[in-house]
Amino acid sequence: xxxxxxxxxxxxxxxxxxxxxxxxxxxxxxxxxxxxxxxxxxxxxxxxxxxxxxxxxxxxxxxxxxxxxxxxxxxxxxxxxxxxxxxxxxxxxxxxxxxxxxxxxxxxxxxxxxxxxxxxxxxxxxxxxxxxxxxxxxxxxxxxxxxxxxxxxxxxxxxxxxxxxxxxxxxxxxxxxxxxxxxxxxxxxxxxxxxxxxxxxxxxxxxxxxxxxxxxxxxxxxxxxxxxxxxxxxxxxxxxxxxxxxxxxxxxxxxxxxxxxxxxxxxxxxxxxxxxxxxxxxxxxxxxxxxxxxxxxxxxxxxxxxxxxxxxxxxxxxxxxxxxxxxxxxxxxxxxxxxxxxxxxxxxxxxxxxxxxxxxxxxxxxxxxxxxxxxxxxxxxxxxxxxxxxxxxxxxxxxxxxxxxxxxxxxxxxxxxxxxxxxxxxxxxxxxxxxxxxxxxxxxxxxxxxxxxxxxxxxxxxxxxxxxxxxxxxxxxxxxxxxxxxxxxxxxxxxxxxxxxxxxxxxxxxxxxxxxxxxxxxxxxxxxxxxxxxxxxxxxxxxxxxxxxxxxxxxxxxxxxxxxxxxxxxxxxxxxxxxxxxxxxxxxxxxxxxxxxxxxxxxxxxxxxxxxxxxxxxxxxxxxxxxxxxxxxxxxxxxxxxxxxxxxxxxxxxxxxxxxxxxxxxxxxxxxxxxxxxxxxxxxxxxxxxxxxxxxxxxxxxxxxxxxxxxxxxxxxxxxxxxxxxxxxxxxxxxxxxxxxxxxxxxxxxxxxxxxxxxxxxxxxxxxxxxxxxxxxxxxxxxxxxxxxxxxxxxxxxxxxxxxxxxxxxxxxxxxxxxxxxxxxxxxxxxxxxxxxxxxxxxxxxxxxxxxx
Length: 853
What we know:
This protein is 62% helix and 5% strand. The chain is mainly alpha-helical. The strands form two sheets. The chain has a six-stranded parallel beta sheet with strand order 1-3-4-5-2-6, with helices on both faces. A three-stranded antiparallel beta sheet has the order 7-9-8, covered by helices on one side. Among the domains are: 12-176, P-loop containing nucleotide triphosphate hydrolases (Rossmann fold, 3-Layer(aba) Sandwich), CATH 3.40.50; 182-271, Helicase, Ruva Protein, domain 3 (Orthogonal Bundle); 580-702, Serine Threonine Protein Phosphatase 5, Tetratricopeptide repeat; 709-853, Tetratricopeptide repeat domain (Serine Threonine Protein Phosphatase 5, Tetratricopeptide repeat, Alpha Horseshoe).
């Protein structure tokens, strides 16, 4: 039997607070935790893989639940490959913390993909135990069980939860954590103070403080810092308790804790009054760690209105004040070790226990609370000053600030600087993929700002962001209605050419595209581009976004020549204009897409490879990188590289589905891409199963009369035909063609693609004259729309050759065949799959892939 290596370190060690060198006792609780976690193999949920039941430490504030799990993590770290700490009192913080594991687990996703997507990938890896099965997750200060049940990975590892909520009892195995035993209190004080205190005096202090660990820690810290004799501390403590008993205090904390805290604050006030002001400000942050860089010199825009301006210009004074808070045990100053370092980890943090925060707030008159909250709001806003929330380089800073947004009641602020910060937090949340939190915060801001009044600009801005969130969540009609009303209001309130009006004008074009109103979108975006050029000039990043949208409109309407010219112009100007990496990638991928739709598959693969490589390098895992992967897969398939296309389509679909679920436009597009790749690779049964499910989702997302719905039906019909269900295929294609005719006219490339496939259905059913007539009309239109050498035109001609031969028009068929084969060898080359199928006398099918809207 191999001896245990107690010096062994976990491969991954993240966000775990520093070990308390004065930790004492709790041996029985630690052993109960260890043995319970090691022995339990009960399945938690019937639909999940078997895994260990989470253990919950329950107890009142200040009894040391968090310290206990910190000690457990450090003491038994040799038994784990991964130990990760998760603040659990806010959903958005839990998911951000879990998402931080992705890079450590070497998952093929990155923070830029968004919190929701990355969290899903992390949970899946933990459930499977890949690459690590020996893991420990610690959810600190969870509230209700339902708040975190969807982020507990029921796999081979261990989960510890701390909570003050008794509702955990009966849900999981709960261990009650009470105050210290008297002997534990004495041992703690003797270890903490070391000199100037006897065992008897320690016992008296323990009794007076009710054996509450947090109170004992503050008492010990005070005596160490001031050298106060135990007798003097006991006298002050008795006076404070007597004073406190004379007034009504909340029941959330004992009088002994209040007394111990008040003595420490009184002594600190004598030593450094500035530190007490800093501590009071901390009481109005959230209970999560506060990045040290929040307390830095304020930008000029904030300095005139903050009480901390003078203090924050003196780095030495700030550092000393923070140090004093730590020495008096009024705050935890956490400087992470090397294992905790990373781009998402500030150099060190300040954290005030929620019980101490409550006591601090209680000391301050209620009418002064808004002033202190305003100070916190200014500090938060200044910490994000000039940091663009849709730039993924700024996301780590926002992720540390966001935990203090709701607890500080930022929605109550009427300060325009603070409101701008709040709007940016909404923007950060949905840009990083946390649509649920973005929607909740936006709704709260709208509700409170509507009632409070003030500058309407920020209220209108957050409503605009809410429209984007709603659309991204698939609520297309709701987004359109909201943005339509909001655009009228912006024009009336701020004017046609105000920045905020133009931002919504640009966004609203997407609403029209999502509704399938492509002609309207083109007119709308043409007007938007003209207004942007007048306001910002031709090469401003906002103008280039408007150009990109107009290029997409042209593509959707089949005007590939103009679309390509505009897309190329936009891409070439992006980097010089200082556009974001997302916008650069969107333009480059848009160029690859329009080149592919123009029929130049080799060029599309080359440009698409460049776009995908750029995304992997600059935005690994980002939604636009996944879109580039999907479009590259389509180009590879069209170019005859079927195996490579299928591999990329499968990986992209899995990532997209994990990121957004199936009820998302990008997931539906990725499903069609995979289905088409499977069909091309001959995996008809798997493709048919996927499409049968996907076809149900398109009407739910887009409505029953949307071009994309008809395109999905057309793909299913193609699969049905090759699976010998030709009658059903014909009916689907008839309905789809009628729908395309009504929405887009017959002279649209979507419509003509469907007509080609319907002609094949008719031919297989023996309705050859109908197939021939439909094929001739379709070929005539395609030559006009796309030209004689476009692959779609050539496919139509190939199929028409067969129908002409069947009805006896052999001379016309031979002439068309010779012309078509020469074009195939010229355009696609002699070895392309379409060329080979045409040469062998087969029919060629074309499928539908929805562009990004």
